[in-house]
Amino acid sequence: MEKYNGWTNYATWRVNLEFFDGCAWLESMEDCKDLNAYAETLKDMVCEALELDAKGLALSYAMAFISDVNWHEIAQSMIDNYEAENV
User: pLDDT, tens digit, for every residue of 50-75?
Assistant: First the structure.
């Protein structure tokens, strides 16, 4: 699989850029003890934001787009960034 700007794919890169880049979502390492749960939390946040802003066909296309996102990769990146900044 070809990477996009160092990320798994375009969808992962774009969602990370649009929703999470520059945001400190972690308040402490307690927030990310379980990578799977943290990835699911990030996905839920994006889904909720999309559902607030989009309807009908636009929402369907947005949800299809985010189905390709590697949520674990974004979560791990956020954890790594937190650790690097809080050493």
Answer: 999 999 999 999 999 999 999 999 99
In a domain, 4, yes or no: no
Residues 6+ apart with CB under 8 A from 2: 9
* Phi, psi angle pair for 21, to nearest 5°: -60, 125
Tally of domains in the chain: 1
Single pTM value for the model = 0.86
Q: How many other CB atoms are found less than 10 A from the CB of residue 16? A: 20
- Which residue range forms the structural domain that includes residue 81? 10-85
40: which residues sit within 8 A by CB, 6+ positions away? 71
From the list 87, 80, 73, 84, the residue with the least C-alpha distance to 9 is 73
